Input
Amino acid sequence: DVKVTQSSRYLVKRTGEKVFLECVQDMDHENMFWYRQDPGLGLRLIYFSYDVKMKEKGDIPEGYSVSREKKERFSLILESASTNQTSMYLCASSLGGLAFFGQGTRLTVV
Amino acid sequence: DAKTTQPNSMESNEEEPVHLPCNHSTISGTDYIHWYRQLPSQGPEYVIHGLTSNVNNRMASLAIAEDRKSSTLILHRATLRDAAVYYCIPTRGADGLTFGKGTHLIIQP
Output
């Protein structure tokens, strides 16, 4: 069974903390993505990556960075967490338009 | 990315067919039409996709209009487990999926 695994299901962090959200896929996909999902706003693309060490900005990259040192792992970094980054974060990997999503990480910044 | 229009919500009874429409009049010639759904408290999951011809799989059928400006996802016998938000997404896939608001499907027992 194919899998995209996010390291945490729930996370609570303090304002100003550096936060790492980890995502691992076991399908050898080149493309990986980070989305956030908020009520009324739907899923919005933060960053994506076509290959190791490559990254592209999505629609809402401000306040975030990413790291892709290995093909299977794509990390989302909040350099200095703020309360407006409280959200559900979803990681995905894809082959063309066929994407597989993780279960999501619900991050609360207090 | 092509703009899509879907009903905000639809309601159906269990074990009846459900037809979920999507308009994508600005779709490009190389975009596939993908459908995803998101069950409560889960990430989106792939349902089906097609280019020009109608498609069937174990989850659903996809009917694509001849001019490709609209498509319909068909659930042949809806169950309570099919209650979800359904997203229609025209895409070549390379740059990520752009999710709209989708259709919230409610299934009545």
